[in-house]
Amino acid sequence: MTRQKEPAFTGETMSDEERAAWLEAGRRLFAKEATFVLGAAALVQIPEEPLPEVCFAGRSNVGKSSLINALTNRNKLARTSDTPGRTQELNFFNLGDRLMIADLPGYGFAKAPKEKVKQWTAVTMAYLQGRAQLRRVMVLVDSRHGLKDSDHDVMKMLDQAAVNYQVVLTKIDKLKGNQAEKRVAETQDALAKHVAAHPVVIPTSSAKGDGIPELRAEIGALALPE
């Protein structure tokens, strides 16, 4: 298989004017009202919406809900917790009738009954492989720890299903000196082995706002036009 051709949504190869327009388009999208649609515990509950969709996946407690809140400038749109496994359903949000956002349960360790974890993991994996309107999976990775085996397993599954995904590093503010730059570089090197991966890694901090404008712009390019 060959890597899917991707548009250069990095902003780095754009002129100043193009980059400013790219960032502004993302800002406008996320300035729209974001409304909770529903939480799905089974495939039959997942909404059949015509909107393009972007979902946030990652290990438990990686910061998915915090990142969604930072993107939308809402403190409590997505429920956050320090306890792995708080998100136990696929939560869907409508962003200005231009995009659907899905906050997925975490994979890996979670403080929940094993049968419950098995159930939501099965639903999540089936959703990731069979959602026709899913434009991109944002695979969130804690920058302090880098890619883990469970991340590679999910990415391999997405490769096989030909589902486009992009790695977003979270909590980048926790790294010191040139650690952040090294983490981004090693993650990009690892992605070169994955055929469905978007080649651009976005380092972010929900607490400090790092990378939030760029991530909004990446996602904005996948939404319905204004």
Automatic annotation (TrEMBL):
Entries under PROSITE patterns matching the protein: G_ENGB
Keyword ATP-binding: no
Ranges of residues in domain EngB-type G: 50-225
Protein's name according to its UniProt entry: Probable GTP-binding protein EngB
Pfam family, one: MMR_HSR1
Free-text function comment from the UniProt entry: Necessary for normal cell division and for the maintenance of normal septation.
GO terms for MF: GTP binding; metal ion binding
